């Protein structure tokens, strides 16, 4: 049975609790990662994810503050779940599911950080070892478990749906068909709305008339979404869906029927769940 140490990534992108959120955000962009491990010495003491950025920077408490004035310790999650490098992949999957997290810092016997294992690593493992075992429909979220919004829903509605469904993406639907997708990355790397300036994809809007008031506008789902998202049919081999996610560098996609109607969503975390279930069988 494969061990975590064989799948984990190393070295790990880390920050200190006293770093600013601006630095953390830039690290995520530069290193193309979804989470940063917060370390104290050589030991992990917290974690900061894109979801944390979306949730906290959209909150009333934080939205008026500059990113370089917010410390990592203010929004990181602590204590952090870790896994031993000699643990099995199935044990790691079960830990992720029980804690509802998408990545685990990996530590040695002395508690020092040696790597990280994420839902992407689990998806790669599933693709390599689970071909032909499941259809997409067997492991994907059903439509009633899928966060769906309309084109004209607001930024805040999108954030609320991500929170309510514990999801990292939202499907934009029109006439029962998927027309777009919005991810945590789309939200966490936008300039946060401060309540005192316009906000449409970071482009300021200025009135051509010298009125004493200004026009403020929040982004809609339509202005945030990626159009024509990659989709997968519910009857396809789930391992092929895993390969599609890996090859395209995406974390999830709409699931459709033969009429191209939205019937659910499959994400990398669904492959973590499938691995955990098999480990319990």
Low-confidence stretches: 191-216
CATH architecture of the largest domain: Roll
Number of domains: 2
H/E element order: HEHEEHHEHEEHHEEHEEHHEEHEEH
Main CATH class of the largest domain: Alpha Beta
| CATH-defined fold name of the largest domain | CBS-domain
Number of strands: 14
Kindly report the average pLDDT value: 89
Kindly list the characteristics that best describe this protein.
single chain, 281 residues, alpha/beta, CBS-domain, 2 domains, four-stranded mixed β-sheet, 12 helices, 14 strands, 34% helix, flat
Task: Give a description of the structure.
It is built from twelve helices and 14 strands. By secondary structure, the chain is α/β, with parallel strands linked by helices. Strand 1, helix 2 (21-31) and strand 2 form a beta-alpha-beta unit. The strands form four sheets. Strands 7-14-13-12 form a four-stranded mixed sheet.
């Amino acid at each position: 049975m494969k061990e975590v140490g064989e799948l984990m990534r190393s070295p790990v992108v880390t920050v200190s609790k006293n770093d600013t959120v601006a630095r953390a955000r830039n690290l995520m962009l530069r290193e193309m990662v979804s989470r940063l491990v917060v370390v104290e010495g050589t030991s992990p003491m917290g974690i900061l994810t894109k979801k944390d950025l979306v949730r906290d920077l959209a909150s009333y408490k934080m939205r008026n503050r500059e990113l370089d004035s917010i410390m990592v310790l203010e929004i990181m999650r602590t204590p952090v779940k870790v896994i031993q490098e000699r643990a099995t992949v199935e044990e790691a999957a079960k830990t992720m599911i029980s804690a509802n997290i998408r990545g685990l810092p990996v530590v040695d016997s002395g508690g020092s950080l040696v790597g990280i294992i994420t839902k992407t690593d689990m998806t790669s493992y599933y693709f390599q070892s689970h071909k032909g075992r499941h259809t997409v429909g067997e492991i994907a979220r059903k439509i009633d478990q899928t966060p769906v919004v309309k084109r004209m829903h607001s930024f805040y509605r999108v954030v609320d749906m991500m929170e309510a469904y514990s999801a990292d993406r939202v499907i934009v639907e029109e006439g029962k068909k998927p027309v777009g997708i919005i991810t945590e990355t789309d939200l966490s790397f936008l300039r946060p709305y401060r309540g005192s300036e316009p906000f449409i994809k970071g482009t300021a809007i200025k009135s051509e008339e010298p009125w004493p008031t200004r026009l403020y506008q929040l982004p809609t789902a339509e202005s945030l979404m990626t159009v024509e998202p990659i989709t997968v049919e519910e009857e396809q081999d789930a391992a092929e869906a895993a390969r599609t996610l890996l090859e395209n560098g995406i974390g999830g996609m709409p699931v459709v029927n033969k009429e191209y109607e939205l019937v659910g969503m499959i994400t990398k975390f669904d492959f973590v769940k499938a691995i955990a279930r098999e480990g319990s069988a």
